[in-house]
Amino acid sequence: MKAYEPVKLAGRIEGRILLIRGQRVMLSTHLAELYGVEPKVLVQAVKRNASRFPEDFMFRLTAEEALMVQRSRSQSVILKRGANIKYLPYVFTEHGALMAANILNSPQAVQMSVFVVRAFVRLREQIAANAAILKRLAEIDRTLLRHDSALRD
Fold it and tell me: How far apart are the C-alpha atoms of 84 and 110, rounded to whole Å?
């Protein structure tokens, strides 16, 4: 098993986390690559263990969502002009990604699941930090408006 640089890998994983239906998810193809299995193997394992994957762990994209992902990430799904997506891709939430590692149970899947979960957590922390910054900016803006109003009066 090859060694991974945690910082470089975390950035690579974070870059593959998408926001779809208000949830942060990863495409099954990206998850399979990280876990060292073929996408088909991952999907088969998930289907064999369907009861472990409720809708909030994994779901299949609609045709519109798949096209949106294809357009925004042309490197992940490259189709010839006029071609259709044959199989709509699955996406996994943070919990689904962890569950997938458990059913695959390979050493690489277990090791990589830690990085995947950390990437999701880091994104959540960044969103919270951004929200705190926006809240503080709004407070400063209100203070300045009050101050400007007082100066005009």
Answer: 34
